[in-house]
Specification:
heterodimer; A: 2 helices; flat; B: mainly alpha; Ferritin; 10 helices
Chain lengths: 94, 256
């Protein structure tokens, strides 16, 4: 449909969450309406304290076809994974 | 009869009027569920309807409590006939197209929000409590309907035309919201409810400003259509109640 509203991706920071998390997407004519719609579609049950919306077309994404070069690291370089250290108790959560 | 009984009747009427406005409008708006022009609007409309049902429950429970004859909110919602309903005629007007639904909502919200704000300082604590629970969510309803009225009024040629037609059809019903009768005067005098003429003045000023921004013209001098607050309804209400009440009428006491 040529008159369809643009697609927006919705990010919501939950009650206790530290970062905004991707919640889903919706259609809206502009950012203000996108936030209102997000409020109605995704935060009906007190899910969030903050909403971000961004036009889906403004998101640059990695292509599925490039999966190998991007993510298939050479697993032989075990020194890249810091699993040989004992973390002292005092350091706490890392 | 003592004066105390008379006061109770006034609060009873207030609770019915507030509750019935919310109930009948919710029933109307709820009919859009699954039929709205886009998914986002569908959910938003259903949310508005559910908010209003929540408020209905509080107001009609209070009405039953004040009445003192053991009637519950459900009894009042499902077992009264049209003449016992106290909603304004605006609330029962048909959904029409999306413009009509939206304009009806806007004309109602623009009154509902200041009314609830004023009721928060009611000297009747139970009234103040309900108003305090309802006012925030109704502010959101108004924000939304105001925004959409401005966007669609000051929108495309077709959207403007539809919004103007809706305003022409529905504005005559808006006056009833602020038209005070003897019950309203008594409530204002006893500081249970605000003086409706005060609400009315700022209501009209607000409509002039907002509709102006939406490039729409209301038929300001049109005669006011009223009667609902006193139980004199348009034929629309009968159809609404038939659909809403048939199950309780056909199977009295049926539960989920």
């Amino acid at each position: 449909m040529k008159n369809e509203w643009p697609l927006w991706e919705v990010f919501i920071r939950g009650q206790h969450g530290l970062a905004h998390r991707h919640f889903g997407s919706l259609h809206a004519p502009d950012a203000e309406m996108a936030i209102k719609n997000a409020r109605d579609v995704y935060t009906r049950r007190n899910e969030g304290v903050s909403i971000w919306v961004v036009r889906a077309s403004d998101i640059a994404a990695s292509a599925p076809g490039e999966k190998e070069p991007l993510f298939d690291r050479s697993n032989s370089k075990i020194y890249r994974h810091p699993t040989f250290y004992d973390i002292p108790e005092e350091v706490g959560h890392m | 009869m003592t004066t105390a009984v008379k006061t109770d009747l006034a609060i009873f009427e207030l609770a019915l009027r507030m509750g019935d406005n919310a109930l009948i409008l919710a029933q109307r708006v709820g009919a859009w569920c699954g039929h709205a022009p886009v998914l986002e609007e569908d959910i938003a409309l259903a949310n508005v309807a559910l908010d209003l049902i929540g408020q209905t429950k509080m107001w009609l429970s209070l009405a039953g409590e004040i009445e003192g004859r053991g009637r519950t909110a459900d009894d009042l919602a499902f077992l009264r006939d049209a003449r016992a309903y106290r909603n304004v005629l605006l609330a029962e007007q048909p959904n029409g197209d999306f413009a009509h639904t939206l304009m009806r909502q806007f004309l109602f919200d623009a009154w509902h929000h200041p009314m609830l704000l004023a009721l928060k300082s009611s000297c009747e604590k139970r009234v103040a409590y309900i108003a305090g629970k309802a006012d925030k969510v109704v502010r959101y309803h108004l924000e939304r309907s105001e925004d959409l009225v401005i966007r669609l009024g000051d929108g495309s040629e077709e959207s403007r035309e539809r919004m103007q037609a809706a305003l022409d059809a529905l504005y005559p019903f808006a006056g009833e919201l602020c038209a005070a009768d003897a019950i309203d005067s008594e409530l204002a005098e006893r500081r249970i409810a605000p003086d409706l003429s005060g609400i009315g003045e700022s209501y009209i000023a607000y409509l002039k400003r907002t509709l102006g921004e939406a490039t729409l013209n209301a038929p300001w001098d049109a005669a006011t259509r009223k009667g609902g607050k006193n139980g004199m309804h348009t034929e629309e209400l009968g159809y609404i109640l038939a659909e809403m009440q048939w199950l309780q009428r056909a199977y009295p006491g049926a539960k989920w």
